[in-house]
Prior knowledge:
Helix content is about 40%, strand content about 15%. It has 8 helices and 8 strands. α1 (about 10-25) crosses α8 and α6 (about 175-200) packs across α8.
Amino acid sequence: MAVRGDNRAEWQQARVDMAAILRWSARIGFHEGVCNHYTVMLAPDRFLINPHNMHWSKATASRLIVIDDKGDTVEGEGRPAKTGFNIHTRVHLNSGRKVVLHTHMPYATALACTKGGRLMMTHQNAARFYDIVAYDEGFNGFATATEEGDRMTRQLGDKRVLFLGNHGVIVTGDTIMDAFDDLYYLERACQVQVLAMSTGRELSLIPENLAPALRDFGTRHENAGLFLSAIKEILDEEEPAYSS
């Protein structure tokens, strides 16, 4: 099915940006085999997603596929992971979020695998997520049906980030750059916390009254755009095929 009218340039830009963050995610160890999924809701019944057989380090704009709300591929070659369709389309449709990123990145997943694990306000990177994180402690096995995506969305509620107990994390956003910026700094915050916990010393927490300002700092969106641009600048020099 052809791209719809005026959306052509927007959809192509989404492809390029998605390929960039997939490749970068592979570079920094956020990937897991050919599993995990990034999606962008292009229209109420169209979702850009990485095909199941593509390693993230080999992502290109043209290899990404578009699926419909039934999971059928309508643009490109290949198919999505069944769990990707079941989780992502339901989060998009139920929450209205345009971008959904799901990974098993090591440090965030490590916290999700601790009993009662919570992201603590131990570092300024953690404070970026003050009061925007939800926790799902009801691990239910593989997401083999859309009902599991519905259940996850209920757990997410009005938050942007969901820790999936015994599983991984979901980060949502309205733009690719903002969602990936959150994903990156979430892992950095979790890394610092896990390392601090490993000392066996009591964690030092940021005073709660400072957290909202650390979360809502004025250049947050600008910084996200600069980060994505810097990633693409490196890829343009070292792996230019990503944008093809």
